Structure prediction request, 301 residues.
Amino acid sequence: MTIARTPYDDLPVTLTAELAAAGLDPERIHAMVADAFEEDLPGGADDVTSAAVPSQGHGAGGFVAREPGVLAGLVVAELAFVYALGDDVEVTGRAADGTAVRPGDTVLRVEAPLAGLLTAERTALNFACHLSGIATATSRWVSALEGTRAQVLDTRKTLPGWRALQKYAVRCGGGVNHRFSLADRAMVKDNHVVAAGGVVPAYRAVVAANPGLRVEVEVTDLDQLRELLEAGCTEILLDNMDSPTMAEAVAVTAGRATLEASGGLTLDRAREVAQTGVDFISVGALTHSVDVFDLGLDLDE
Prediction:
């Protein structure tokens, strides 16, 4: 079956408005969906399997959760169906991104010509399963931190081209986004410190070059922390510190700066780290090595 490849300007206005309201660029997401279908159907090719299987008329089915978790990316899955099938598809009963689900919950219903539905299902599921995996992982960290002051942050350890969607999924899971790019916020890392000859020279150089921009500096010990506090730094990252050292860092800081814990943190340590009093816990694994969430399309019999 040749898919519709619905142009951006022909997408439902309600769908593009929903993407924009979620902080996503609808035209960019449309391009990602188009690229995904081009991988499956290069150069306008057909799905040779679905086109050959005897199937007449319309088919219908639902995306069903196979495990407990939190949803993200169903709005993109709907866009994928609309891109592939145009006016021939009807998507109903779509659960809101950020919804907690249980095994067996139907989170979206779709009806379309059966061959087209079979062609489009995997691409739509790829978006929803990956992004729901991120939202689910994030929600577990949020639950572990409940009752403490700490919030879970994502990082820039995202798949190339997928940053906006992956960070959106973190928000769906209750997490907080760190910087989106190297330009919207400065972060002085260990190699910057080496290049500048110390944490304070590095901090002052970045502040001088970027008046008014937020600047966070990474430290590996309490001496560096004290130097930065004296220099007036108000955002500090505690890199690969054990919990007692982080607790001491919180005491030394005494509210003069926000503190972010980072480096090799695991979910089983989450609450212990949060109870040191840090403000944020950043977790690269939310986006760089997350398990997909198990969703499947079950066709009506």
About this structure: The longest helix spans residues 114-145. The first strand starts at residue 58 and ends at 65. The chain has a mean pLDDT of 96.
